[in-house]
Amino acid sequence: MRTDPIYIITFISVAFNIYQVVKRNNKQDTTLLTSMMVKLETIETVVKEMKKDLCHTETEVQETRERLAKVEEKASSAHKRLDFIEKKIKQGN
After folding, report:
1. What is the number of structural domains in the chain?
2. What gap in Å lies between CA 12 and CA 20, rounded to an integer?
């Protein structure tokens, strides 16, 4: 699984800020820590949703590729039949 550098940097900065808040240990910092934890959980939820969407999109792309291959195969077959019909018409004249 690939991890984007932006997520790593975000995680490190959030972790550092949490450390700073805990180190000061006062009421305002505790509120900030709680807020940051909620934001971090929100980021986690969004990333999970994005992964699900990406998986769904990859499945749709694969299905589209399969359908396109079938259409190309049928078009090729139809083209051969048309060439055959055209050849027969020219021979008849």
Report:
1. 1
2. 12
